């Protein structure tokens, strides 16, 4: 199983360049995202000045329905805090949501994240980053 990060989800919904090729590569695999990524996508729709907000919400919800959405539970919170704490001690902090996404993935025995944000996720030794 692989986790789709917010960058992939947004690019997929907006049909941005490069994402369709990657999707065709991975469409037969078990795919997931996290509650943190769902939050970021929905926040962008609600906060942005987007046309056809209702249509974009429906498209996002249809995409989420096709994925396994992983929960942010105690184990995920523990793993996320450990990731963030260790990175902070090294002076290599990343965004909280990225630590949470990685923590959720790892607490579900998933170590591959598909993202354009290899700079942040690449700092986490247990995570394999796939870009597109």
Word description of this protein:
The structure is a single chain. This protein is of the alpha/beta class and 132 residues long. The chain has one domain (2-130): 3-Layer(aba) Sandwich (Rossmann fold). 56% of the residues lie in helices and 12% in strands. The protein contains seven helices and five strands. The protein has helices spanning 6-13, 19-26, 35-47, 53-65, 74-89, 96-107, 118-121, and strands spanning 2-4, 31-34, 68-70, 112-114, 128-130. Strands 3-2-1-4-5 form a five-stranded parallel sheet. Helix 3 runs antiparallel to helix 4 (53-65) and helix 5 packs across helix 6 (96-107). The chain starts with a strand and ends with a strand. The mean pLDDT is 96.
Low-confidence stretches: none
Write down the overall geometry: globular
Q: How would you classify the helix and strand content by structural class?
A: alpha/beta
- Global mean pLDDT: 96
Number of helices: 7
Question: Which fold name corresponds to the CATH topology?
Answer: Rossmann fold
CATH superfamily, called what? 5'-nuclease
Helix content: 55-70%
Q: Give the helices and strands as they follow along the chain.
A: EHHEHHEHHEHE
Number of domains: 1
**Span between termini:** 17 Å
Tell me the name of the CATH class. Alpha Beta
Number of strands: 5
Which short descriptors sum up this protein?
132 residues; alpha/beta; five-stranded parallel beta sheet; 7 helices; 5 strands
């Amino acid at each position: 199983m692989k986790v789709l990060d917010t960058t992939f989800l947004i690019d997929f919904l907006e049909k941005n360049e490069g994402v369709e090729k990657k999707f065709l590569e991975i469409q037969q695999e078990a795919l997931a995202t996290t509650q943190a990524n769902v939050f970021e996508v929905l926040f962008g729709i609600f906060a942005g000045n987007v046309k056809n907000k209702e249509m974009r919400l429906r498209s996002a919800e249809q995409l989420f329905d096709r994925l396994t959405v992983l929960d942010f539970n105690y184990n995920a919170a523990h793993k996320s805090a450990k990731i963030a704490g260790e990175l902070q001690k090294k002076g290599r902090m990343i965004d909280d949501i990225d630590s949470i996404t990685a923590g959720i993935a790892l607490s579900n025995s998933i170590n591959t994240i598909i993202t354009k944000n290899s700079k942040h996720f690449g700092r986490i030794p247990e995570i394999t980053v796939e870009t597109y």
